[in-house]
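Appendix C reproduces, verbatim, an entry submitted by the partner laboratory led by Prof. M.T., so that reviewers can inspect both the input and the predicted structure.
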Amino acid sequence: VELLLAKARPSRLLAGKVVGVGVLGLGQILLFVVAGLGTALALGQVDIPPGTYGLVAEVVAWFVLGYALYACLFAVSGAIAGRPEDLQATTMPLSLVTMAAFFAALFAQEDPSGAVARVATFFPPSAPLVMPMRSAAGELPLWEAALGVALVVATIAVAVPVAGRIYAGGALFTRGRLGVRDAYARAGR
């Protein structure tokens, strides 16, 4: 990391990692979908209902937004861990948030117009998981979709520079666990 940081700013290094892994993940998803769907269509095993392609585009867009948000947050968790042994402790709070978002999505699948689904629509960590389900069920009013997207995009806009700064402060720290505030302050030096 020291050699890379001598040539690139930490925020660019973080952005490169996030974009590189994201493009690879999106490529894998698209490869599986194209291979599976292409095979099923070629064999006449599936009939695509109208509106499916729009929903697929929406799911891909939510994947990109969700990935951008979670990648920045997990990068911060990784940057404040000085050793691999500390990763579990630094990522645990974010893992719990991720699990809560997943359970909210399960509730949204069962009741897309219910209270849990509606609240999760406006909570940025759960919106990428809940919104496609509500949209597919036809239970997502346009104003809720727009507000949910705006909240996720605003959260990403705040998370990216903050994550870059914390990453910069924690990337070279190797003596145990570093607090988020300490990593943020170290980047200012």
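The radius of gyration is 19 Å. Additional entries are available on request from the coordinating office.
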